[in-house]
Each structure stands twice: as C-alpha cells, then as structure tokens.
Amino acid sequence: MAGSGPGGQSPQGGRTLRWGVVATGRIAHKVTRDLARLEDAQLHAVSSRSQGSARAFAEEHGFAASYHDGPSGSGYQQLFADPRVDVVYVATPHAQHFEVVRAALEAGKHVLCEKPFTVNASEARELVQLAGERNLFLMEAVWTRFLPATRRALELIRGGTIGTVRWVQADLGFPAAYDPADRLWDPAAGGGALLDLAVYPLTWAVAALGFPQRLTAQGHLNQDGVDVQNTLTLKYPEGAAAQLTSSLQAAGPGMATISGTAGWIRTGSPLFNPRTLEICGLDGRIEVEDFHEEAEGFIHELRETARCIRAGLQESPLMPWNETLQVMELLDQAREQLGLRYANDLREAGT
C-alpha cells in the first residue's frame, strides 16, 4: 500500500487521497502498479463482479477493502457507498463507463475514467454536466497525453522546431484472434478497433494540428457489426491533413510522424507509450531523445489527477473536458460513416 505521512498527510504536505478501483482486468492491474508508487495515494478499495477476483486483486496490490456483486448490490455501488473512498479509477469495458461514472459522481466521488471516455458524445456531455453540477473532478485517462515524450514533442512543435505542421501519419494495430466472448469483439462491450485503438493516433493528430474541419472514415465491419480496421482522414485549413489507421487485423509500426515545413518528429513504438523521439531537420540529420523510466507510464496521469483534486480543480488543463467531448464527437462522426452502432446509442435515442 502506498504510504502516507502522519495525520493522513502525504510526504509533500498534501492530503493523502484514498483510491478505489472499479474492475480487475489487465489495464486495472497495470494502472494500480503505478498508483502504488504515488506518495500521496492510499489503495483503499477495489470492486469486481466476482468475489474471487475482487479479493485476489486486493491481496495482490494491498487494498484495504474489496467489494463484489451480491445481495447488497453491485460491487461498484458498494465501493461508491464507502465514505473512505475519495477518488475512483474506472477500468470497466467501454460500454459500462457511462453507467459506472455516473454512479460515482452521484455518490460524490472524483473520477478518472479509462479511454474512450464513453461510447458516444451524448453520454460524455451528460457526465461532464453532472461533474460540473456536483463540483467534482472528472478526467478521461488518455495516459499518452501526460507522458514526458508527448510533452516534449509538443514543446518542440510549439517552439517551431519543425516549422508549420502540414501532415500527421499515425497507426496502431495488431492481429487479434477472433473471440466473440472477448471485449474487443463484443458489440455489447463497445468492441472494435475504433473505440479501443483510434484514440491514440487521434491524440497525436489533435496535439499537432488541433481539431479538423472535416473527417472521413473508411473501414470494414465483421459479421457481428464490429469494426476490424479503419482509416480516418482529417482535413485542415490550407491543405494540412492527418491519416490515421487502427486495426485488429494487422500489425503496424505503431508510430506517429509529425511533418512540418522545417523537418519532422517521429515517435518510437508504440505511439501510446513512446520511449524515444526522432527529430529531423531539413539537413537530414536525425537526433534521438530517450525517455526511459521504471514506471509503466500511467503514473503521470495519476499524479495529474491527484494534483488537480488537491488544487480544487474540476478538470485538468492537460486533458480538459472540451477536448474529450470533441474527440467523442469525431468518433461519433466516424462511426456514422462506418455504420457502426452500439446498444448505448439506442439508449441515447430513447428506443
């Protein structure tokens, strides 16, 4: 369990935050390992649908309490009713984000929610409105936005190192074995390449070029109505463009290249957690910057969450609500063009 100073104070003098984790899948394990590294965090409670999973997760990571589905309600509802929990990290499948985050906010908890924030923009707007009304912190956990390599790349771009950015190329893909029971392939869970992977290439395009004037989406849906591969083309003023691919069919280099009038920057692979940047000027000379660290990389978004909560902020300036909403709107546009629909959309339409 992460340590705290006397009287519930962290070594830096800020209030120690007591964390709850909702769900016990692979990403929850990874994020929790970094959460345990924070000096101002206490691992208090975890919830899962099954008692065995909740208890095993709590024992492995040193949580004080565990909750699971039962006569007293769902595990996450019991966790949210625990007055000792200050902030929750939500790691459920995509289609459950809206329901779980809404319940957390209604219970008065600050929330860090895995990407994609929700399945559609309507859900995202409702959650942002609720957080605003309850004066609670809420952030989408796009961890790539907080990494040292990403922040360094943005510093170089904004400083004019590669001139005016004219195009971005980014991809992320791997050949995933088809399994209708796996969340990646399950329409009920919000499966598919778009919601699971495309946020990472989009992160680099939006960081370098901002939000586009127009988005065009092409892709392929399988027999279950889940997208297995897609390509997004973003168009900007004066001809600037981005081409982004995400795939559950093929492995790619998993890099982002940002090209400008005075050179280019290329991330190491994978682009969601790059440990290197290549910077090349018009002279063709390539410089490499390294960003190696012991932590998985989630620790940076976790530190930002803690910083914002202690400062009384409702949103992070590094991952503001408006950008989350605009990304969700882009994903809505892409899904409309691909013909990709989920049960959450039916709830939105009231059918």
Strand order of the largest sheet: 8-9-10-7-11-12-13-14
Q: Uncertain segments of ≥5 residues (pLDDT<50)? A: 1-13
The percent of residues in helical segments reads 25-40%
Radius of gyration: 20 Å
Shape: globular
> How would you state the average pLDDT, rounded?
93
Number of strands: 14
What's the CATH class of the largest domain, please?
Alpha Beta
Question: What is the domain tally?
Answer: 2
Organism: Pseudarthrobacter oxydans (Arthrobacter oxydans)
Domain GFO/IDH/MocA-like oxidoreductase: 151-266
GO molecular function: nucleotide binding; oxidoreductase activity
Protein name: Dehydrogenase
Describe this structure in words.
This protein is an alpha/beta fold and 351 residues long. It has 2 domains: 6-143, Rossmann fold (3-Layer(aba) Sandwich), CATH 3.40.50.720; 148-296, Dihydrodipicolinate Reductase, domain 2. It contains 11 helices and 14 strands. The strands form 2 sheets. The protein has an 8-stranded mixed beta sheet with strand order 8-9-10-7-11-12-13-14. Strands 3-2-1-4-5-6 form a 6-stranded parallel beta sheet, sandwiched between helices. Helix 1 (26-35) links the parallel strand 1 (17-22) and strand 2. The longest helix has 18 residues, at 321-338. The radius of gyration is 20 Å and the shape is globular.
